[in-house]
């Protein structure tokens, strides 16, 4: 059984969902350390002159991701941050092929207040899973507490959910302890993800946008 593991990013890119689709069980690494420079509270959408970051205002503290609080009264250009994000999606995708199919659902999500970043991210991830017809079983790493970290923690999580193979992202080759996986008897697999080309809004294709870009523009997994 193949297990994928990933932090609960904000509006994740398409490779996140590709890894989930290729896994039998997907572990949301919700008790990993929050990294303000990563994609846990921000991601990019395509706009007329390139791309734009959408960043959730959070209390940037040295805590696990599932303990990071959203600053709900934060304003961006005289708009509540969540309304600003939704308006940016509207302004840049309202002519996209599948905009009408999904914008109401996004509006409901952004219409709520969230105490924790994790709650918001999982609402969006679940919404995109349903939209992409991904039905992989999801569990949270916090359900299997441990003091281990790095490769050992990943191995423990795979074992905890009954897996015999771990599907790493492509960059895992640079930091995973391959020998530790071999000794544990768990097969180490590396995700092969070639970003698809599809028709985007505006001229020029930019890969690795939030998967909301591919969803609204009508891309579907094979």
Automatic annotation (TrEMBL):
Any Pfam family matching the protein: WbqC
Source species, domain of life: Archaea
InterPro entries cross-referenced by the UniProt entry: WbqC
UniProt name for this protein: WbqC-like protein family protein
Species assigned in the record: Methanolobus profundi
């Amino acid at each position: 059984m193949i297990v994928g593991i990933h932090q609960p990013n904000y509006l994740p890119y398409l490779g996140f969902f590709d890894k989930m689709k290729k896994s039998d069980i997907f572990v949301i690494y919700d008790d990993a350390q929050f990294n303000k420079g990563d994609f846990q509270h921000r991601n990019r959408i395509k706009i007329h002159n390139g791309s734009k970051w959408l960043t959730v205002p959070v209390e940037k503290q040295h805590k696990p991701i599932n303990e990071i609080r959203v600053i709900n009264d934060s304003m961006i250009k005289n708009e509540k941050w969540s309304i600003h994000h939704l308006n940016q999606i509207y302004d840049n995708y309202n002519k996209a092929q599948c905009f009408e199919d999904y914008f109401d659902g996004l509006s409901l999500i952004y219409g709520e207040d969230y105490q924790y970043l994790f709650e918001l991210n999982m609402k969006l991830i679940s919404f995109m899973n349903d939209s992409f017809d991904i039905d992989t079983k999801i569990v949270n790493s916090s359900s299997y507490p441990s003091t281990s970290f790095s490769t050992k923690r990943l191995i423990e999580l795979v074992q905890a959910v009954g897996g015999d193979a771990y599907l790493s992202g492509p960059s895992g080759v640079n930091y995973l302890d391959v020998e530790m996986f071999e000794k544990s008897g768990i097969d180490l697999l590396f995700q092969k993800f070639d970003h698809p080309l599809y028709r985007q809004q505006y001229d020029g294709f930019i890969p690795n946008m939030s998967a909301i870009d591919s969803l609204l523009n009508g891309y579907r997994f094979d």
